Amino acid sequence: MPEPACGEAARAAVERFRELDADSGVNRRAAVGSRRAAKGVSTDWLQGVSEVVQNAEDLGATEVRLQVVGGVLRLAHNGRPVRLRDVIPLSMPWLSGKSDDAEAVGRFGIGLMSLFRFAPRFDLYSGVYRLRIGEEGLDHAPDRPALSVFGPGEWTVFHVPLTREVVAGGARRALTAEALEEWLAAWGDEALLFLRHVTAVVLVDREGRSLRRLALRRTAVEGFSTEVAGEQVVVEAADVQASGGSGWRVFHAVVTSPPDLEPEGKPAGEATPLAVACPWTPDSAQSAGCETHQAGYVHARLPVTPFPLPVRLHAAFDPVPSRQDLQDTRWNLALGQRLADLWAAVVLKQFHADPAASWSLLPLPRHTADVELSGAVDALAEALMERSRHQIGAGLQIGVPDRGMHPIEGLVVEDPELTGLLTEAEIERLGGRPALPAGARDTEGFYREVLKDWTDHDALAPVTVSLRDAQKLLGNTERSVEATIRLAAACLDTVWGLFLEDFPWVADAAGARHRPPRSQEPWLFADRPGSLAEKLGFARVLHPEFLTDSPAAVRVRAWLAKYNALLVDGDELTALRRLARYGQTRTIAPVLRLSDEQACLLKDAFARLEDADRRRLGGDLGRAVALPVYEYLPDGQQREGWEAIASVYLPASVERTERTEGFPFAAARTPGLSWLRPRCIRVLRESGPGLSTLEFLRELGAASAPRTMPHRDRTLRLHQLGLPAGAEGPGPEPCRCWLWAPSTR
Question: Are 600 and 687 in contact (CB under 8 A)?
Fold first, then answer.
C-alpha cells in the first residue's frame, strides 16, 4: 500500500484500519483487554515518558520536549514522522513495528500503552496523521492544535488528557509539571548517555520556557584497541558533560554478535554495540564544586535496571516487557561476558589516566551482598568481579614518580592500621620495593578493600608492611616526635603493644628518646617539671608533643599512666609508690643514690603521707634509695660507700646520747656492717618538720639493733631431733639463737 501523501489519504487509511478492528470480533475484545493490561506492566508511573523518548530515539530525533498545561500532558519530538506501517503497531499491544530493526530500542509494542494510566485515550499528531489511540481502538483525532512551543508542524506531538489519577508509591497522584520535573531530575542527564540521536529532553512551561533540561555535551578523546571475546576491536571514547556539571567518560565498541544466538523478538545483526561509561569530573566541574554522579545502571540505550557499581553499562540486552530488568536469556549472558571484557580494558585505561579515581570502579563482595539481582544482572556483576580479580590485577600498572610504571605486585603497601603514619620512603625501606604512591590512592580507602579482595582470592597484589614491621621505626630518631607518637598509638590496640618497651620512642623535654620504663625499673615520666620524682632523679619530663590534645598523644599518655609510668600533676604519692615498687622487686639492680638535698626532699614528702601509706611504703622505699655509709674492713681500715637505707645501721649518735651499753656502741667496728654517716643525720635533722630523723630512717628500714637470720650451719629442726632441715613437711621453727650478721648488698 502506497504511503498517503496528504491528510485526507491518511484519514482514509485510518478509517479502513478502524473498520478492520471493529469487524475483528473476539480479536478486538482481546486487543482491548491487552491495551488495558499493558498500561500497568511497569511499576514506574511515568514509564510512558521514557517510552516516548525511546520512540524518538528509534526515529532519529535529536530533541524531546514535554509540557503539562491545563490538565494535558504533551510530549513531542523532531524525529521521523509516522508512516502507514507504523499505525497498527502504535495502537496494537504486543505488536512491534521494529522487530526487523536490530538497532531499534523498542521491541514489545506495549510502551505507549502505559500512557493509558492517565487517560483512556490520547491523540497523536505526526506528519499527515491525526490518530486517536484509545483502549477501545483506533480513531481519528481532531485537528492539530496550534502549539508553537513544539516547533513547526513536522514535530510529532502526543496529546494526553490527564483525566485519571495514578497510584504511585502507595498513594494516588495527579501528574503536574512539578511531579514531571522531579521525575526527570531522578532520571538524570546520564539517562541519555548511550542514545545515538536524542541529545536533549526539555520540560517547558506554557510559554515554552525551560523548567528542566536534560542534555549532554560530548567531546571526543583518544580511543584505544583491545580484545573482546578473542576479537580485536577499536574502542572510541568521549568525555560527556551534563548540564549540572557532572561528567562521564564513555567508551564504545562494536563487536561481532554472539554466534548462534539471537535476541528475543528481533534479529541479531552481524555486529552488536557495547558501551561503558565511567564517572569523570571535568576541570570546570571541579572548580565549581560539582560532584560526579555515582549511580550505576544497566542500559539498553535507556536505563533498564540499577547496578551496584558506579558504572553504566550498555548492550543490546533483552529487557523484560516492563523495561525494568533483564531477561535470563543466553543472549544476555553472552553480551554480559563481552561487556565485562570491554569494562576490564576500560578500567585499566582509566587507571593509567587517573589511578586514584579508578579504585571505586572495581567491584567488591559487599556491593552485591545485600542487593537482590536478577539472573542476568547477577551474572554480569560476577563477570566484572572475576575480571577485576584476575584480568585487571594481572594487567594493572601504576606510575611511581621518577620511577616509571610498576606492576601492582611490584609495589608495597602498609597495613590499614598504618594509614597516614608512614612516609613513602619508610614504606619502601620496610618493604624493599616502591610504595604505592599517595597519588594513586583514593581518599575513601576503596583501594584497600580491593587489594584485600584480590589477596583473599589469590590474585596478584602488593607486598604488605605490617604494624610489627613498622615498629622498627620507633627507634629512628630522625622521625618527628609527633609521627612517632601516632605510630606508637597505632600499636596499643594490637598484640604489638606488648613490644613497645623494646624501643626508645618516648621523648623527653630535651628531645632525647627513651624506652618506656619497665615495671621493675624506678624511673618514670612526668607531665610537668618540678615534681618530687624529677628532683629525686627518677623522672623525665615529657616532650611537649606528648602533652597535646591530639588523639594519639592522649592515648599514649593513658597507656603510660595505666602502667604507672606517668606522673600526672606532680603527684607525690604516685611517685613514691613507683619508687617503692622498684624497691620491692629490686634484686641486683642499683639503688637510687640520694644527695643531701634529695634526702631532705624525700623525708619531707614521706612525712606528708598518711600513716597507712607510710607503713605500707616505707620498707620498700628503704630498699630503693641509698645514702652514704661507712664500714670497717677486717684490717681495721674504714671504707666509705653507698647502701640502701633498709640495709644500714644507725650509729649511736642518732639518739644524741652516748649509750655504751647499746648495739651501735658494741658493734661499731665490726667488719661488714654498714653505718649511716653522721653527716647524713645532721642534714636530715635540718629538713622540714613533721617527722623526726629517727622515725624517718626506721620507717625506711634502718636498724639500731642486730638483724636476725637463720644460722648457715643449721641442719636440724629443733622440735624434731635428727630430722633434716630440708625434709618435706612443716618448715623449721624460728632459730632459737639470735644472731647479728653483716647485711647483704
Answer: yes
Q: How confident is the model at residue 21 (pLDDT cuts 50, 70, 90)?
A: low
d(CA 156, CA 76): 5
The distance from CA 250 to its chain's CA centroid, rounded to whole angstroms, is: 28
Strands (DSSP E) contained in 527-578 are 539-541, 566-567
User: Mean pLDDT throughout 119-148?
Assistant: 84
Strand runs labelled E in 288-414:
297-300, 302-306, 312-315, 397-400, 404-407, 412-414
Q: Are 255 and 342 within one domain?
A: yes
Give me the residue label for grid cell 639503688.
Answer: 591
**10 Å Cβ neighbour count for 521?**
18
Map grid coordinates 610498576 to a residue: 406
- The set of cell numbers assigned to 728 is 618435706
Question: What's the Cα-to-Cα distance from 121 to each of 93, 144, 174, 644, rounded to whole Å?
Answer: 14, 16, 17, 108
Chain centre distance of CA 233: 37
Report yes or no: 388 and 450 within 8 Å, Cβ to Cβ.
yes
Question: What average pLDDT is seen over the chain?
Answer: 85
Q: Would you call 460 helix, strand, or coil by DSSP?
A: coil
Query: Within this chain, do residues 26 and 164 fall inside the same structural domain, yes or no?
Result: yes
Interatomic CA distance for residues 190 and 303, integer angstroms: 9
- The angle at the Cα of 620, spanning 615 to 623, to the nearest 5 degrees, equals 135
Report CA 551 to chain centroid distance, whole Å: 19
- Name, in order, each residue with C-beta under 8 angstroms of 169's C-beta and a sequence gap of 6 or more: none
Domain membership of residue 376 (yes or no) is no
Burial of 67 (0-12, 13-18, 19+ CB in 10 A): buried
Number of domains in the chain: 6
Matching residue, cell 492544535:
145
Check whether residue 404 and residue 541 sit in a common domain: no
pLDDT at 169: 66
Give the Cα separation of 599 and 604 in Å (integer). 9
Beta 524-526 vs 539-541: how paired, if at all?
Answer: parallel
C-alpha cell at 372: 537482590
* Residues making up the chain, counted from first to last: 745
pLDDT at 358 (0 to 100): 93
Q: Is residue 368 part of a domain?
A: no
| Per-residue pLDDT tens digits for 210-225 | 999 999 999 999 999 9
In a domain, 201, yes or no: no
Q: Are residues 55 and 173 in the same domain?
A: yes
Per-residue pLDDT tens digits for 185-204: 999 999 999 999 999 999 99
The C-alpha atoms of residue 19 and residue 744 are separated, in whole angstroms, by 127
552 shares a domain with 525 = yes
Residue 385 lies in a domain: no
**734 pLDDT exceeds 50?**
no
Q: Which domain holds residue 127?
A: 7-187
Residues 83-96: what's their mean pLDDT? 72
Q: How far apart are CA 670 and CA 435, in angstroms?
A: 71
Sign of the torsion formed by the C-alpha atoms of 627, 633, 636 and 637: negative
Question: How confident is the model at residue 1, as a pLDDT?
Answer: 60
- Closest to 604 measured CA to CA, from 733, 691, 525, 540: 691
Tens digit of each residue's pLDDT (9 = 90 or more) over 499-526: 999 999 999 999 999 999 987 788 899 9
Look at 41 and 589; give whichever has higher pLDDT. 589
* Bridge partners, 383 (sequence order): none
pLDDT in tens, 285-297: 443 333 444 679 9
